[in-house]
Amino acid sequence: MGRRFLILVLCLLFSMIPFAWGIGDDFDTLLSQGNKHLQQGEYFLALHELGLARDRATTPPQQTQAQGLLGVTHYQMHHFDHANGLLHKAIDSGIGNSSDRARWIATLASLQASRKQMGDARRLYAEAMKLAVDNPGVRTSIRLSQLPLLDPAQRLAELEQIRDSLKEITVPLDRACRLLDIGMTAQTLGTAGVPLAYYSFAQARSVLTDQEPRLLADALGGLAQLYEDQKRYEESLSLNQQAMTALRDLEEHDLLIGLEWRQARLYRYLQKPALALAAYQSAIEHIEAIRQDIPIEYHNGRSSFRDTLEPIYLGFADMLLSEASHASGATQTALLYRARTTVELIKKAEMEDFLGGRCAVHSNDNTLLEERDASVAILYPIILQNRLVLLLSNGKEMQQFVQTVPASVVEGAARRLAFRLRTNSSDIQFVSRQLYEWLIAPVESWLHQHTIKTLVIVPDGVLRLIPPAVLYDGTQYLVEKYALAISPGLSLGESKPNHTHSIQFLVAGMSEPGAVVEHLPPNMIRTLSHAAERDAAHNSDRPPSRALPTGDATTDTDPIRGTDREILRSPSVLKHIQDRLILPGVVKEMETLSAALPNTLLMNTTFTLSRFTQELEQNAYSVVHIASHGVFGGTAETTFIMASDNIIDINELERLLQSKKFLDQPVELLTLSACQTAEGDDRAPMGLSGLALKAKVRSTLGTLWPLSDRAAPIIMAAFYKGLLEPGVSKAQALRLAQLSLLAQKEFSAPFYWAPFILVGNWE
Fold first, then answer.
1. 588 with 667, same domain?
2. Are 597 and 681 found together in one domain?
3. Do strands 640-642 and 647-649 pair parallel, antiparallel, or not at all (unpaired)?
4. In this predicted model, what pLDDT tens digit does every residue of 696-716 receive, in sequence order?
5. Among residues 97, 125, 149, which one ends one of the domains?
């Protein structure tokens, strides 16, 4: 859980309190408490206390010290911009002794390294080392911070040299702190680092007492992990229990998460399932206790969800499902619901990662939402390492269906199908049939028995890359049997019935871009420029398509830099880029919808950010249809839609669609008919879900790959025609529209009708 960085923070800040600057009691108390919260990973509490300390500061030295600690806290929370500003203020003030300034500069260096600015990081580390020349403890911490900048082959030798230099540190507790960091780092070096890791943890343990329970628990936990890695489970369990005993009666949730998780694994290895389940439950309770303090990414850029949260939740769910397979009746049902509820926590954590904040997702009690309609069933696939589990329910009962197929095989098949769908390959049915056999065939008789008409699927991981409509049984596609909808998670989003009697449409389209080009991410500008140059060099006429050129167009959201502005200063290049963004089929789509729907139409020059904002602020639309380029990347920051003159990001849509007029009557449906998801990124389709959640939209209709320009007007007109019919749900309307296209020989390939998915409320 990023514990190594917390140890490093503790080492860097170890000698900072008390201070020698005549601090008053009130400021001293607030700063000390904020520092304690920081060391314990309680970041929001740290921000609160340190913010109060800054407000109470009466001297420049006090102000500097509060700003420095606030900067470190924001850095650990991955708030790089805030951290950068605060650390610079502390450093640029010129106040404080050389060791204090070295600490702030070293933290700023780590921030630059996190941003991949390695040259700046090395320069700042060198500056910090010069300032800390008389403080061996700070110098050691700075050397440890620099390890990620070294070639992996050099790190063990550097660690051993750092260990040998610890004799210069005369304070035992200070030395133990550095030993823990050496041990945690050595653990990451594989087999070669094991001897150093063991030595470091053992030496730290010999120094530490019950007076430093957190550090003692770290030392014992580090040893326990080494024994677990060696499959010496009984010895590992004994050490782990000693670490937990050291924290007895203390609410050290951040440490107890890892210790309880290891306890669960060890009990499972030792075939003590009841004790393992209890330990997993305790680990999850500790997570929930400090959920908002767990950073989205650790300081090294690794996802906290991928590294910590998902494995714990999934391990617990795995055990619950295994226990359910040996139970029956009410006990089995309770275990299955408990497993699904646990996986819901995974869905929530993953969406929080995508949206960039632990408080970004509000859970609703919709876990039994299928009870409202007996013809609706929920299919909940869970991909485990050694099997695929299908949970199927209709509110009255839940069944578990198990396929003994490894996760790697399922994921490989899903990625192959996703690629073939995007490229309109001829063997789609063959590849799709295998996934049908795993995902649908096992539950088919149950669906028939219960007369299911609508199937709501909660896709897991890579399964988000494929539309369920395209699953093929050898004769029919799934869409020919059921109306289909996607849910990002049963507890995510609002699913209560909406009894809207009239529908107001806002229809916006961009067939020819304007000034929006100047606001695109730099990588996208470069990619578009290169694509335009290739087209011009080969005198190629592109077939009508809504696809943006491939490249890393969604990975860079920094403002346009000088070199990018130079690209746009060339009238010919600018014209080529604008031409590359033309969407000729949008004209036909807008004409068709404008004639068929009661609507307000914004097109090209009238589809500006300000006009779009004005319409949503002044009118209560129930359906918003946007036909314009858009990209769903792997995070909310790389997800946006193009208006004619500017981009519309998720935060802007959230602001517009959560205005007062939409509180009682939220937007019923947001349709995006020309957006595309980043290819191969199983997080990218979450953009549709994330957009709906952030903007409180009840349903989103979007595409997993660029829709054919010729097919778009046909399927859109058919969808809205069905939607306006009394008693036809959104899922049913989409099914009818897809079937109408499937029935036409020209558009019968899945490439044309399958990209659309309905996310959220299906009614």
1. yes
2. yes
3. antiparallel
4. 788 999 888 888 888 988 999
5. 149
